[in-house]
What does this fold into?
Amino acid sequence: MVSAGLVLLADLVLRDKHRGWLPAVALSGLGAAVIWTVTLILRDREAVAFGGTYSLDTFSIYFKFLFIGVAGLVILASADYVKKLEHQGEFWALLMLATSGMMLLAGARDLILIFVALELTSICQYALAAFVRDGKASEAGLKYILLGAIASAVTLYGMAFLFGISGTTKLVAVDGGTSIASLVLEGDPGTRAALVAGAVLLAAGLSFKVALVPFQMWVPDVYEGAATPVAAFLSVGSKAAGFAVILRVFYQGFGFGPESFISSDWSNMFAAVAAISMTVGNVMALVQTDIRRLLGYSSIAQAGNIAIGVAAVAAGATTGASGVTFFLATYAFTNLGAFFAILAISQRIGSYRIKDYAGMARRAPILAAVLAFCFVSLTGLPPTAGFVAKIYVFNAAVQSDLAWLVIVGVLNSAISAYYYLRVVRHMYLAEPEDESSFSPTPMLAIALGVTALGVLVVGLVPTPLIDAAQRAVEAL
Amino acid sequence: MTVAQGIFYLIAALAVAGGLGVVLARNTVYAALFLILALLAVAGIYILLASEFLALVQVLIYAGAITVLLLFALMLTRVGDLEETMVGAQWPLAVVASILLVGLLITTIATSDWPGDADGMITRIPFETLGEALFRQWAVPFEIASLVLLIALVGAIVLARDEEGDVEEAE
It folds into this structure.
């Protein structure tokens, strides 16, 4: 909690000084957040603050570290990019505030806090998306803000239903008082319709954040229009934060397993949404010529993959929900790596068209290798992190008797292999138009190295991260 | 039907009429005026529920400040170019979807057992309790809300800096 506060403090210092070392200040703010979180963990492993609205449990800690890592990598990667922009201070400030909003989300156990933190994150992201001043970015920002405002309204409507039926905004009560979880446990059939309506509206609003079909319209436009580092941040941060809230609300609030009388309702809902998202995302990605739009549709498909884990509720939290947390971490590494490689390449060649990536393996062998590696991971082939994550989630689905969903998933992986590997083939086999070679800037190289290493290490030795992911969901 | 119920249905009908007016009015200025009607009707419902503070704030901020701001924005931007609100080609689809959603929500509300005060009376909450709840129990969300406003400002300034009126912060 206070970690977020510290970040904000660092953030205020940084706003006043328009110097080159702004990213360093931002990074040290994150560092302070890490140290503070670790001290909090060491002092008191499980803590609930502010009348039970905010909790420091393994779940929130896991996501906090994930968000800090993502923000750190994005800062490293965008340091050179942002130098060209005016108003650098605001860029970092918005980035840091969005991150602190996400960290608040990870720990929030109260509908009001969840909503306010969600707005904090979203508004930063709207502004970031439109940060670069050109027609594309403005269009992206406008679309994002209009659809986002509607999504927020829908979320709020869902929360109003839940509050109306339960008389409380708490998902879980500390002292055994009334909460949404206790209401679900009572299983009064008279509350069922309102609970389900609330769940559906909440899921709709949150699906917007994580880019699940049918709330995915903004994704390709925003990824294409926004600055590439921002798109990287949006794709990973927004998704992880959205799924963190989904897990918190659905697993902890609505409960899972036989003791919750509505769990099968929302499980079926997520299963259907997952299947549609995977199919729509992958099929649309096939025809894209802009690599950012391709990643946009791929991120929709990946959201579908992650939602399989949410739907696999019957398998219990340790398999289903931990699949989500684990998948999110691997996806963070992989997608950030892909975006950073694209940033490095396209900044140099000034084009995002896939056909201009021809022969990139000869011009920038390291960048091409990282990008290819990340795409292999996104496809879900060994020895990458993406492979382990997909197996894990599919396994959870099989255990929950959702074999049809796994079949859809596997078919979709095959489709996705086509467009991911098409880019790879283009980079390695096509003749380059221009022979000049180049390499990334040092900061970007560090960020790329970390992500690529992350994808590889998690792919080869996934056990520590899986353990962490499982411990995280024990708190639910 | 008691008197209170009668008043409630009257005000609720006004609110719905105002809302429909906002959506259906072709002239943006009329739409803004309809918005005042809808917001005032909601304030009336608050009074009916004995929460004068909420009603007061609703009138002051929403019906007063926000609508005036909206009208000012209409006045200062070239309203002549936008005499009529735009109607997209998909409006029949939107009508069907909205009617379905309204039906669904009404069925849900009608079929659920909503908890309420057993005697059917409304407990009046004094200002002090409200203030205390806001600054003690809900202090954290309250502070974050102020941060949200701050970044909305920062974002709006960043977006509006060079070319004015290109992108407007809609929040």
Notes: The beta strands of chain A are 47-49, 54-56. Chain A has a mean pLDDT of 79. Chain A touches chain B through 46 residues (CB under 8 Å). Residues 139-474 of chain A form one domain.
